[in-house]
Design goal:
The protein is of the alpha/beta class. The protein has two domains: 196 residues, Endonuclease, Chain A (2-Layer Sandwich), CATH 3.30.870; 219 residues, Hypothetical protein af1432, CATH 1.10.3210. The protein is built from 15 helices and seven strands. A seven-stranded mixed sheet has the order 1-7-6-5-2-3-4, with helices on both faces. Strand 2, helix 3 and strand 3 form a beta-alpha-beta unit. The radius of gyration is 24 Å and the shape is elongated. The two termini are 48 Å apart. This is Metal-dependent phosphohydrolase. It comes from Leptolyngbya sp. NK1-12. InterPro entries: CHASE6_C, Cyclic_di-GMP/3'3'-cGAMP_PDE, DICT_dom, HD/PDEase_dom. It holds the Pfam family CHASE6_C.
Length: 488
């Protein structure tokens, strides 16, 4: 990272003291998850995040860095529309002909900051959107010639690579907006003061409970994520192939960012739940351990882990629930079949990404009961997908364990594990598969003997490895309870 750049300053603020340090720094800041992004991915991603401003009355403060004025000029018309819906728009770029003369640049709430050629921010691509009800950010820095190595810099503009990350997390967006305002101050101290005042005002609103930026819903972040997926898919469909289909890195980069969109919402939902802020990470790790204990194939273990990480998205709230007369079945594939299961808004968001088809089915049926009295389809016993049975049990176990930790943090962990297990055991044969209760008992025994699971949320920017080789297939019902192979 370039010294003095905004990305480098933020990275340093979140750098852990040592490799053996805890998952968060002494200040409570989480380490950042960086990845490499192609320009074509960033264009689609930024357009999706920006267009949320045009779809709702967020009236945000928006700060951007375009590297060069010519890149801003390509976006200036749409930025004029955004400025009409924004509180203020600040654009940083190395000035070029026409940079300051475009009509958008003349708007009262648009400020241009002409970066010096030696300014490290002139090598960065930033989009910072800050409001009480919507926060989003892309923070990237273009790779240098040395970074490209022996392969050399790409000839096609859309293949240029950038290092950084993107997020919806309000705290990170606020922190970065302050760094950006300070950088603007090197060129325009008066504008810096104006930005600082606005950031402080927005920060005060964000701290209020009703601020939507920390409360994911289907109408709010669900719609934004759907737009991200749609734009990335459209970008993919419109690309001119430059690599063999099977090894196309541009394709993989787009798919990775579709998955990142869901993982970032899942992480935000965890952070918003102060009573159980590690639910997704803990359930994912428990699910992986359970899959290994049951000797499931590696692709199915990956699927379980990903379902655990995304399980909270199924419970995204909605103030305008979809009609209970429609169904989660693949009606488009079988239009003559009657619709039986009610649509779950959060799961419908997941279904926008074809490769999450199996995950959506797992989450749909996590509320089924072993005795057939659950929802949404009233499935019983081995009719319930195995992954749904596993995930539902582990979610309940983790929630019970978290509640015990809150109630009495001084209680020995061994006792809490035993109590959480016994609470689940009381519903064996009714809600839970008895064979899975047996497997959970073995896991609890391992924990009581010192076996530990990592609790940190995985590195989101490299989450593509979580996609299994059967990702786009319909969910198979492979194992009956009697066929499960317990290790140990």
């Amino acid at each position: 990272m370039l010294p003095g750049s905004i990305l480098q300053q933020l990275s340093d603020a979140h750098r852990l003291p040592s490799a053996s340090a805890a998952d968060s720094s002494p200040s409570g800041r989480q380490p950042l998850s960086f990845g490499v992004y192609y320009k074509n991915t960033l264009v689609a991603l930024c357009h999706a995040l920006e267009d949320a401003i045009l779809q709702a009355d967020y009236q945000p403060l928006m700060i951007t860095a375009f590297q060069r004025g010519k890149w801003y000029l390509e976006e200036a018309e749409r930025y004029g529309e955004i400025a009409d819906r924004a509180r203020q728009v600040v654009i940083m770029a190395a000035a070029e002909a026409g940079f300051a003369e475009h009509p958008t640049s003349q708007k009262a709430n648009v400020d241009l900051v002409s970066l010096a050629a030696t300014d490290p921010v002139a090598q960065e691509w930033h989009l910072i959107i800050l409001s009480p009800n919507y926060t989003a950010m892309v923070l990237c820095q273009e790779l240098s010639a040395a970074d490209y190595g022996a392969v050399g810099q790409p000839k096609a503009d859309l293949e240029r690579k950038f290092y950084g990350f993107w997020t919806f997390e309000p705290g990170l967006v606020l922190e970065t907006a302050k760094l950006a305002a300070a950088h603007v101050g090197q060129y325009n101290p008066e504008l810096q003061q104006q930005l600082t005042t606005q950031v402080q005002e927005i920060a005060a609103h964000i701290e209020r409970e009703e601020a939507l930026c920390g409360l994911p819903t289907t109408e709010h972040l669900g719609e934004v994520v759907s737009r991200v997926v749609d734009y990335l898919q459209t970008r993919h469909q419109g690309m001119t192939p430059v690599y063999p289909v099977a090894t196309n890195p541009l394709d993989s980069n787009l798919i990775s960012n579709e998955l990142q969109a869901f993982l970032r919402v899942a992480q935000l939902m965890d952070q918003a739940d102060l009573s159980n802020p590690m639910a997704a990470a803990e359930v994912a790790n428990l699910a992986e351990a359970m899959g290994q204990l049951l000797d499931l194939p590696a692709w199915q273990v990956h699927r379980l882990r990903l379902a655990g990480m995304l399980h909270r998205i199924a419970f995204l709230s909605s103030s305008s629930l979809l009609s209970s007369g429609t169904s989660v079945q693949e009606h488009a594939e079988s239009p003559d079949k009657p619709l039986a299961c009610p649509l779950v808004p959060g799961i419908q968001v997941l279904r926008r990404m074809q490769r999450l088809r199996a995950i959506a089915t797992i989450l749909t049926h996590q509320t089924e009961w072993w005795n057939g009295s659950g929802q949404p389809a009233g499935l019983a016993g081995d009719e319930i997908p195995l992954e749904s049975r596993i995930l539902a049990l582990l979610i309940s176990f983790q929630q019970r364990l978290a509640a015990l930790r809150r109630a009495n943090s001084a209680q020995p962990l061994e006792d809490m594990l035993t109590q959480a297990l016994e609470d689940c055991r009381t519903q064996q044969g009714e809600r839970w598969d008895p064979k899975l209760i047996e497997a959970l008992s073995l896991l609890v025994s391992a924990f009581q003997q010192g076996f530990n699971l990592p609790e940190s949320f995985p590195k989101i920017a490299s989450g593509l490895w979580l996609m299994d080789s059967h990702a786009q297939e319909a969910l198979p019902l492979i194992y009956t309870s009697e066929q499960l192979n317990l290790k140990g």
